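Lay summary. Proteins are chains of building blocks that fold into shapes, and those shapes determine what they do. In this project we predict the shape from the chain. Here is one chain we studied, written as its sequence of building blocks.
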Amino acid sequence: MKLEQATKIRIAKNALLSLLLYALPIVLMFATFYITGQRPWEKKQQHKEQNTIKNKPVNTQPQSND
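And here is the predicted shape, written in a compact code that computers can read:
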């Protein structure tokens, strides 16, 4: 069974359109980060480091070596 030329073209167009729609949000996200200069992954890391320093338990009772 042979495909018609018009069917092949339509399948190729639909495949390319699907890939474009799939990649568009990712491309827009990185474009937004580039334009605005935001880097949320760095803020999260910085916030995490501050929490570990703040929440570090302080041992106020001396430990005995029995």
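What the prediction tells us: The radius of gyration is 27 Å.
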